[in-house]
Structures are given as C-alpha cells and as structure tokens.
Amino acid sequence: MKKRSRGVRVVIVLLAGLLSAITLAVCVVAGVYLYFGPQLPDAGDIGQTQFNEPLRVYTADHKLIGEYGTERRKPVTYDEIPKQQVDAFVAAEDDRFWEHPGVDYQGLMRAVIHLVTTGRKTQGGSTITMQLARNLYLSDAKTYTRKIKEMILALRLESKLTKKQIMELYLNKIYLGERAYGIGAAAQVYYNKPLDKLDLAQRAMLAGLPKAPSAFNPIVNPTRAKQRRDYVLRRMHALGFIDDAAWKQARNAPITAGEGSDQKNPARYEARYIAEMVRQDMVARYGDKAYTGGYSVVTTIRSKRQREADHALRKDLLAYDARHGWHGPEKTLDSSTMKDSKAVQDALDDMTTRGGLVPAVVLSTDGQTVHLQTGQYGKVSIGASQIPWLHGNKAASSLVSRGDVVRLAYTGAKDKDKQWTLAEIPKVQGALVAMDPHTGGIEALVGGFDFGLSKFNRAVQARRQPGSSFKPFLYSAALANGFTAATIVNDAPVVYQGSGLDDSWRPQNYSGTIHGPTRLREGLVHSLNLVSIRVLRRVGIGTAIDYISKFGLPANQMPHNLSLALGSATFSPLQMATAYSVLANEGYQVKPYYISKITNGRGKVVFQAKPKVACDEVSNCPALTDTSGADDTSRLAPHVIKSDNAYIVGDMMRDVIKHGTGRGALKLGRNDLSGKTGTTNHQIDAWFSGFNANLVTVTWVGFDKLKPMGHAETGAHAALPMWTDFMGAALSGQPEAIPPKPDDIETVQINPQTGQRALNGGGIPEIFRKGHAPTVEQARHSGKHDSSNEVQQLF
After folding, report:
1. Which CATH number do you get for residue 141?
2. Which stretch of DSSP H or E encloses residue 497?
3. What pLDDT was estimated at residue 157?
4. Are 37 and 89 part of one and the same domain?
5. How far apart are CA 365 and CA 376, in angstroms?
6. Which of 289, 512, 598, 662 is deepest in the core (most CB within 10 A)?
7. Which residue has the higher pLDDT, 476 or 786?
C-alpha cells in the first residue's frame, strides 16, 4: 500500500513537473512573442513587398541589350513557374514545405539535438517560409535572436498567405548569385533562357544555389556546382519527384551555365553605347526610379544589324592597326608568376575580353610560332600567317617573349590552327550609325571599339570635320541656285588672300593634279576641292549655309568662309546620318530617335514614339494609317529640299561608287548605292557616308586626340571597308532600292567637254530638271567656261 502511495506521489510530482515545464515553456514562448512580436511587421502588412526591378533595354525584336540597377530581377507568377522547378527547390531546401505551418518542428528538433550532441550549429530547420521572412525583413546575421524572429514571421506569413503565394514570393526574392534575385533573372543570367525552356539539370542547378550562391556558382566554380546539383537531383529522386531515367540523364548532363556569355563567346557583342543613351534618357525622365521601377524600353535597334555594325567596326579598326606598327605587349608577368601555372591562370582570370579580343600569356616562341595560354580556351599556338606584324623571315621573338600579355582575335574558322590571330587593342577609334531614312529610327549605332574601355560615344558626342563627305550638301545648294549636273566649273589653281600677303590660302586637290574645265558631276565623283571652292564662292557662303541647315546640320557649326567647301565644319556621325537621310528619302527632314516604347513595371505603356515620317501625304504612309487608325497629318515630315534635287545628287553619288572615290563598294555588286568619301587634312579624319532608299549609314575613323592616321589613310581606305562590310551584311537578300525618279526629271544627251546639248548625236546622257537642260541654241554659242581670278579675296 505504501509502495502504491509512493508511486502515486511520484506520478503526481512528474505530472506537476511536466505541467510546470509546459507552463514554463508556454510562458517562455509567450514572453518571447510579446518581446519580439511588436518589433516585427503586423499580419496586415506582412507579405507586402515591392521588387526593385531594374531598367531593361531591348532591341526592336526584343533582345536584351542593357540592364541597369543594383539587382537583376525578372518576377514571375506561380502559374508561370514549371512544377519541376518548384519540386527542385522543395527537395533542396524544405521537403515538408507543403505540410508544416511555416516552422518545421521536426527539422527544428533535429537541429537542436545536433547542437546539443555536437556543439555545432546546423542550417537544418530553416524552412522556405523562414528563409522568405529573413529575406524580406531581417539581416543575414546568424544569431538565435534572428532565428526566433524568423519563426514568428514565418507563422505570420503562413496565416496571411497561401502556400503558393509564399512559394511565388520566395522564388522571386531569393538571391541566386551574379546579382540575380529570383529564378526568372537567374535563368537568364546563367542560361540566357526563359524559365520554361530550362531542362531538369539546369533547374536542379538553380535550386542548389540558395545555400551558397558564390560557392556553388556554376560559371565560377563548375566542379562544386555540379556536386550541389547532383545532390538536388538525388533528393528529387528520393522524394519521387523524378523517375530513374530522368535522374540518370540529368546527373550525366554537362554544365552549360554561362554558354553564350561574352566570356564564353568572343563573337557576341552588345549594344552598350545605345543602351547607355537610353539609360541617360530614362534617368532624365524618371530620376532614380528609373533603376527600380521595372521599366522596359524597346529601342529602334535591330539586333542583327547591331551585331553586324559591331563586327564591321572592330574588323576595320583591327585592320588599320595591323597596317601600322606593333604596340608591344599590354604588360609582362614576372618570372615567379610564370613558374606557377595556377598563378598564370589567376592572372588571366583577372583580365577582361575587350572588343572581342581574348587575353593570352605567351608561354614560348619557336621560330615564327608563338605558344600561348588563354583563360577560357586553354593553350593555343599561332604561326606567321596569324601574326600581322611578322613580315619576311622575322622571328616571333622579335615581337613577344615569355610572360607577355597579348590579345587574340577569334576568326571563327573551323580549322583549329587558324581560328586565332595575334591582335592588340587599337589606339585608333571609330563610329558607325545606321538609320531608317523614312522615320529617323536608328537601327544600329556603335560609338567606339569597346564601351568598357571608353564610354565616350563618338557616334553622338564627337564633333569632327567631315571633309569631302560634306560636299553633297554643297552641290545640292548649287543645284538649287542655278547649277546643273552638267555645269562647267574650272578646276585650276587659285590663291585666296586674306588681309596680309602672308595670310594666303592655296587649296589643292588631294591628288595634286588639276583637270581644267570640269562638269559639276565629275567634280563630285572625283572629289575635286578646287571645283567645290569655286561652287561655294558662286553660290555664296551665307546662301549655302542657310540652305544646308535645312538638312538638319546646325548653322553655328559651319565656318563662314570658303574652307566650308572642303568640309571644315564639325559634325557628329549621327548628325551626318540625319543629313544624308534627306538625300535618301526624296528631300524630307526626319529626326533621329532610338526609343520606340516604354512600359512600366506593371506593363502599362507610358511612352510610345510617334516620329514624323517622310511622306507627301498620309495616304502614301501606311506606317501612319496603320498605327493611329486615322489620318495624322501632324506626323508628316517637312519637305525641305525638292525631290528632283535630292534625286540628282543621289544619282551623282551613285557615280562616286561606280567611277570615283567610292569604288571599293563595287564589291557588293549592287547598283542602288550612293556614297561619298571624306578625308581631312593630313588624314586626321576618315569618313564614308552613303545610302540606298531604305538605309543610311555613316562611318568614321580617327584618333580621339587629333593627329594624322598615316599616309593614304583616306576615307576610301580607312572608313569605306567598315561601310561596305556593314552594308553588305545589312542588305544581304534585300532587293535593290533606289529613291523613285521624280516625274520632272528628264535625260538629255550632252557634250562631256562643254556640258552643252550634243548637236550631232553621240554625247553622254545627263539628267536635268525639266526646263533646266541646255538648249540647242546654247550649244551653238558654247565655248565660254567659268573663269576666276588667280587671286581672290578670302571671305
């Protein structure tokens, strides 16, 4: 009886102790909640989060070319997330996510037991909901206090949101490395694909990142990343999310993260100059909200033409560089570094591909062969045919030696021995602008060799002398002031004297030769300076400037003297492209633009471009009636020069390509191209500007600091190859397009020596505005040519 009594007392004591422990636990929990609860968001506020979506810039065909903001984000809804992707994260991070109330007490107890038995903390017990709570509201400090707050917030989240809402928030908020927040952004960053295009191995790779985004980064550390990916796949298989066949196939899949990036593929370029123009425009519109408001900007850039422009410019500048002296290595690694292959690899990892040129370290030279180490492509060897500066029997050691850091250009050849060429970052610079002459939409723009090396946008910001590429505007002014394409102008020496005898100007043709009486057409075709000067003098400087400003060229950038005839004004390549558009579109002035549409983070269109279009009436402009649904005469571009004038100048410029300084473009095999070279004194600036009826392109080459580019580096030699490479690619497969011939243009046979009508048959054809062709009577009394005094007053 006494034993039973003692047993009852023991039970009572134990129950009392248990009750006390429970009471104590409840009190502790209540106390913890009362203490920490007021410090945390209320249930009504929790779950309300705003993603700082970056500014994204796209081409007209929706290829991403720029992203600005501290965080890369691309939010997706739960319904847009493949189930397999959700399963991968559940397997990797929280396999009881769908069952627990926000805190997994089983996992938490395992973590406590592990701590008690080993004395070490573990990451177990942190559910997806708790991770979300931490990401939304707490710091990353690993403390017991933070863990308590996580649990309280997790319970509040679960009381406020559904499991699907929590998963959606989590997968959009979680940091996955490479500045990517959320799986939408990560899919683009690592695989350049939308989320629904990833395979199982790639989804498992993303699911393995939250634990340690840097350590398991598949681009930086593919070995550790694969180990983590395979762990996720094992968990998915163990939980029944994937079958045996899918598991086996995925764990044998190669690491594909980073393929297509600039580091992996040196032939891929981005439109960073135009993207920067958009960024500046958006900041001017919206301030700092431009970086966080989720704005998407669609530009007028056409991705294929932009790539072609990048390629053409870089190829041209590298070709110029190969024609001139080797600059030497960028730097030389010391001997101790060269003895350690890992140190060499580390040094290469710190270098960046620039302008498509891959950094490499010289390991050794052998006669005319150089053996090199690259970061991404391993060891390569190049021979004499791949070293532009290795002439004759010179040894490779005369250019480079062990430890030198150099650059390699990728040619894309299938033959492994010929895919690399020794190169160097050129000191010369260039620019290219391509425009739609009917709307002013910029379809390609490159402002330099590499944006990372120089953010100065030469296509827009540079003001350079256009040289003879300015002459078509002067000749247009001449046609508007009584000249015809057959007017005779004397190409002969002349001296223009200023206020003193020592202040005289003796202009010359580039070739140094003179041609005597010359038709206006031939003066433009052969870019004769003396003809152009006499044309400007007869038209009048003020009259010419007033007329030429109709092309969109600012009058205050044109000198008020006769040097204007030789292109001594200063314009940007974009300004020149705008002006050439007037000649290409039958005389209409369009304004360049590059932003087509802006949408905000909610997908609402907040800006839609409505450019003025080169048309005589709305009925002839499908672009206007199709977009507005009604006639909109306010969007008709102003007609600034007569169509017949534009046509005749364009026709003369077609002869520049057929017979004159632009003959290098004949290799394109097209008859619809008009163009003009431009070269300034001492070959400081080289230009080529030209068009067909649908595309205007201007190219420029020169040094940022004014200095000669070298003998024979003219527009035809330095800038025309860039133009032909781009136009050849851009117009490939396109039918020929010459601006339509106006009704008031007539063709007359003329005497090529006098410019007068041919009386007895024969002669050559020339085009005139009706009423402006030479008459038979004039031909009978011809014989007098334009003459000018040997000394003229400079004005």
Report:
1. 1.10.3810.10
2. strand 495-497
3. 87
4. no
5. 21
6. 662
7. 476
Which two three-digit tokens encode residue 41? 């968001």
Q: From CA 426, how far away is CA 638, in angstroms rounded?
A: 42
For tokens 């708790």, name the residue. 130
Does residue 243 fall inside a structural domain?
yes
Range of the domain at 154: 74-251
Question: In the prediction, which pLDDT does 138 show?
Answer: 64
Helix axes 471-479, 529-539, angle to 10 degrees: 40
Buried b or exposed e, range 59-84, using 16+ CB within 10 angstroms: bbeebbbbbbbebbbbbbebeebeeb
Residue 546: predicted pLDDT: 98
Residue 35's pLDDT is 43
- Same domain for 146 and 32? no
What is the model's pLDDT at position 25?
44
Contact 442, 433 (CB under 8 A): yes
Residue 533 lies in a domain: no
pTM of the model: 0.78
State which of 251, 273, 306 marks the end of a domain: 251
DSSP string, 526-559: TT-HHHHHHHHHHH-HHHHHHHHGGGT--GGGS-
Instruction: State both tokens at 47.
Output: 């779950």
Domains identified in the chain, total number: 3
The angle, 0 to 180 degrees and rounded to 10, between the axes of the packed helices 244-251 and 222-238 is 180
* Claim to verify: residue 168 and residue 22 sit in the same structural domain: no
The neighbouring-strand residues paired with 446 are 432
Per-residue H/E/C for 344-399: HHHHHHCCCCECCEEEEEEEEEECCEEEEEECCCCEEEECHHHCCCCCCCCCHHHC
| Residue among 126, 296, 303, 468 flagged as catalytic | 468
- Cα dihedral across residues 156, 158, 160, 165: positive or negative: positive
Phi and psi at 229, nearest 5°, equal -60, -45
- CA 94, CA 106: separation in Å to the nearest integer? 12
Q: How many CB atoms neighbour CB 720 within 10 A? A: 26
| Dihedral Cα 167, 172, 176, 180, nearest 10 deg | 170
Residue the block writes with tokens 């002398």: 465
Q: Is residue 443 annotated as a catalytic residue, yes or no?
A: no
Sequence length of the chain is 795
Of 215, 231, 251, which one is at a domain's C-terminal end?
251
Contact 434, 696 (CB under 8 A): yes
pLDDT-based confidence at residue 192 (cuts at 50, 70, 90): confident
pLDDT tens by residue, 447-482: 999 999 999 999 999 999 999 999 999 999 999 999
Instruction: Pull the structure tokens for residue 62.
Output: 């929706």
Residue 85 lies in a domain: yes
Confirm whether 285 is domain-assigned. Answer: no
What is the bridge-based pairing of β-strands 685-691 and 296-299?
unpaired
Whether residues 78 and 131 fall in one domain = yes
Q: Which of 67, 93, 308, 424 is catalytic?
A: 93
Q: State whether 32 and 94 are in the same domain.
A: no
User: Strand 791-793 to strand 495-497: parallel, antiparallel, or no bridges (unpaired)?
Assistant: parallel
Q: What is the pLDDT of residues 205-250, one digit of tens each?
A: 999 999 888 889 998 888 889 999 999 999 999 999 999 999 999 9
Same domain, 142 and 21: no
Respond yes or no: is residue 270 known to be catalytic: no
Quick one: 39 and 145 in the same domain?
no
Question: pLDDT tens digits, residue range 759-782?
Answer: 887 899 999 999 999 887 776 766
